[in-house]
Amino acid sequence: MPLLNVVLSPSAAALRPGMKEIMADRPRLFSPRGLTVRFVRRSAPAAGYNVTPARGGLDVSYGRATDAFRALGRILAAEDGEIASGFAEAPLFDTLGVMIDVSRNAVLLPDTIKVLLRSFALMGLNVCMLYAEDTYQVPGEPFFGYLRGAYSAAEMRSFDRYAAALGIEMFPCIQALAHLEQILQWPAYKPYRDTSAVLLADDDKTYSLVEKMIRAASAPFRSKRIHLGMDEAMGIGLGRSREIHGDTNAFDILNRHLARVSEICRRLDLKPMIWSDMYFRIGSKDHEYYDTEAVIPAEVARRIPRDVQLVYWDYYHEDAAFYADFIDRHRAMAGDPIMAGGVWTWNHFWTDLRFSFKVTDACMTACKSKGLREAFVTLWGDDGNECDILSSLPGIQFFAEHGYAEKVDSGLLPARLRATADCDFDPMVRASDVDNLPWRKGGLSANPSKWLLWQDPLLAFLDPLVDRLPLKGHYAKIASDLDAAARKPGNARLRFPAQLARVVSLKVDLRKRLARAQAKRDAGAMRSLVAGDLARLTREVRKLWRLHRAMWLSQYKPFGWEVVEHRYGGLVARLESAAE
Questions:
Q1: How far is CA 19 from CA 23, 25, 36, 116, in A?
Q2: Nearest to 86 by CA among 107, 114, 105, 60
Q3: Is 367 exposed, middle or buried (0-12, 13-18, 19+ CB in 10 A)?
Q4: pLDDT, tens digit (0-9, with 9 covering 90-100), for 340-367
Q5: What's the rounded Cα separation, in Å, for the pair 145 and 107?
Q6: Contacts (Cβ under 8 Å, ≥6 apart) of 314
Q7: Are 219 and 211 in contact (CB under 8 A)?
């Protein structure tokens, strides 16, 4: 691809701040002497863009700002044939975006958010949310984000400005019912507590607090949309609520609470959305979200406020028909939902890209077959958020391609990811094999590298499950492959999964060998193992800890790292005790 000389017509002047940021980030791709690319906004702003060869360069006519940035990303990835003939795209969705969890230890640095937003823009995404349970400041509520790295209103305003310059709408994603353990743990919040995680509904004090939360979260953003969460409120009405009000129907509590919270949003001129699972769980005999036998009474559905949009989250199913069925169930209950798929960052050190591709393909295929117009992917951080957030980018690229084509051509993904995120697709996918064992037959996303790393080196309770699996060779080969890839320019982040694989390969059979030597009372073999492999493993764990720490501090605020570091400290202490 030749260097580009970006020229903005007067109609495209609004692109200037975003283009300036992208060109400053990737200066080697742009030059006044490069191929001229002229951007012109259409007078009738229909979504999409056309790239046409003209006057020795390229003319780009576009409808929305996000279309212009998507066109630039495509031009940067285009082959000579496409440049010569031109090309066009129209989005298949009105909303196409990403939600990033900033509540499970890891709170993204402002610079990391900007890195991601630039890539999202070049992919053609137009929405970004930061999921914050308590990691945003609320005036008069100092426990919000206490020792957790909470974002200030000024920081959130800066994110909104930066996103808007790139054609991306940002709006808050909070919790207004459950998942509030971090706040409700404090004695000062006992009056607001139903259970340890769920707010006390039907109480005026609660709605005063919720209004403060909504005002604080929404004020920094120009968007009028807000995600209120309200998912997984298991046990609603069974804690202090039962003591105060007695036994009450869970559907009734949920709808009364939603009515009060949505009324706050109406007064603040906000357009709310909530996760949909609680309606399905309450209607299920087993309290399951994906229960096809769940019954939601028509009267309950009628009481869902019409100005509240349901968000259907599902990142588990590999069958498009399942998503299609549940889209129909949502429509029957409350109109078109927003689809929330997932790129599997949670419970992993490195995104499980192979499983993410499968579920995203099924999910987005179903959305298109049902004519759904809004979708985003979630990047959760459950269990400590140990993951390198940038390892999600190949999965997000795959999702973005689904937003512009009926089927994704996987052969085009490496060039497009290089253009949008400046990283190599294939070795990043290879790194996800730390959690993809070649002999495993399907099923949900698994995370063996995490279990094998953190399990106690002397107790090793996984041994009966993995005793006959060739794990040592599997992980040693990954380490070798990633070491080679990490030496190439731009791939330094692969050193972290390479080191993870190396540590697991050393650790996976060590307890068994120590136990065998002990059973034989072979003191020589034990001394050799302690001085050799066990000592080496301890050194390599310390190296992994330092690499992980460097990665964390380059991407996240320091708050939350202590949780992960306690795990490393415990592992090193146990390895030293094992040697002793």
A1: 6, 10, 14, 15
A2: 60
A3: buried
A4: 999 999 999 999 999 999 999 999 999 9
A5: 10
A6: 290, 322, 323, 326, 339, 340, 341, 342, 363
A7: no
